[in-house]
Amino acid sequence: MNPLEEHDALLHQALGNVSRAEHRRELSPGSTLLLYTDGLIERRGHDIDASIAQLAGLLVRHGDGPLPGLLRRITSRMAYPPPEDDVALLALRVP
User: Fold this and answer.
1) Of the residues 37, 50, 51, 80, which has the fewest C-beta atoms closer than 10 A?
2) For residues 1 and 60, is the Cβ–Cβ distance under 8 A?
3) Residues 6+ apart with CB under 8 A from 44
């Protein structure tokens, strides 16, 4: 697993006109790219690093399976009890 840690400020009207950098990473065939919002990993009173590690463990163990099943597994483990924030996941499998 190779986390994509490069990022810039996301879109939000309160940020004003923010410059952004472009980041690229080549993904090898069979790779799974998972993008998620902070609602998946942030819980009041819980360590965010532990939540990220839990998500990484799920990806290592189940990331090669069919994407619908992977997303169900992630949401059932990571988004329960229901979070206080919205959760959105986007998964892509490189052919």
Assistant:
1) 80
2) yes
3) 84
CA 36 to chain centre: 3
CA distance 74 to 77: 5
pLDDT per residue as tens digits for the range 28-69: 999 999 999 889 999 888 899 999 999 999 999 999 999 999
Question: Peptide bond preceding 29: is omega within 30 degrees of 0, i.e. cis?
Answer: no
User: Domain extents for the chain?
Assistant: 28-93
40 C-beta neighbours (distance < 10 Å), count: 21
Tracing tokens 């965010």 back to the chain, one arrives at 48
Residue 36's alpha-carbon distances to 16, 17, 30, 75, in angstroms, are: 23, 24, 19, 11
Please identify which residue in the block is written with the tokens 């799920």: 58
